[in-house]
Give the backbone structure.
Amino acid sequence: MAKALLPDDLWALIQPLLPVHHPAPKGGRPRIDDRAALTGILFVLKTGLPWECLPRELGCGSGTSCWRHLHAWQQAGVWQRIHDAMLQHLREYDQIQWERASVDSASVPSTVSRQHTGPKPTDRGKLGCKHHLLVDQRMNILPKPFIAFIDREDSAAMSIRNS
């Protein structure tokens, strides 16, 4: 039997973090269930399928509906709350391997000057910033990913973030 994309114990952890939906006063088309939408989102992200190709046989509604849920939950900060809750759960069961943590970063070009943009030393002084990520041996993304000035070393950026 195939492994479920959204097991019951994971759904029990995530469900309280989702915003409450209030029906539209004028009625309209019924909204798809949050669990079905999350299953569709996970399916698309796991398989790399385009949203419009999400199979209706999964019972997740259309790819557009799932994408709308993804976007609305992003705007509401749901994904960060889920990430924090899952990290807390991993900490409770001592599943984070701090001794094998690794920092990685990616330099991203920027067209406008913002809070963390600066001249990139490797690209003739063009504007950019660095996105940093800390993972453990199991590829758990540990704290919240963050952005730092482009001209900082990764280790320096981590010490600034943790101070």
Residues 78-92 form the longest helix (15 residues). Helices lie at 8-14, 34-47, 63-75, 78-92, 154-162. Residues 98-162 form one domain.
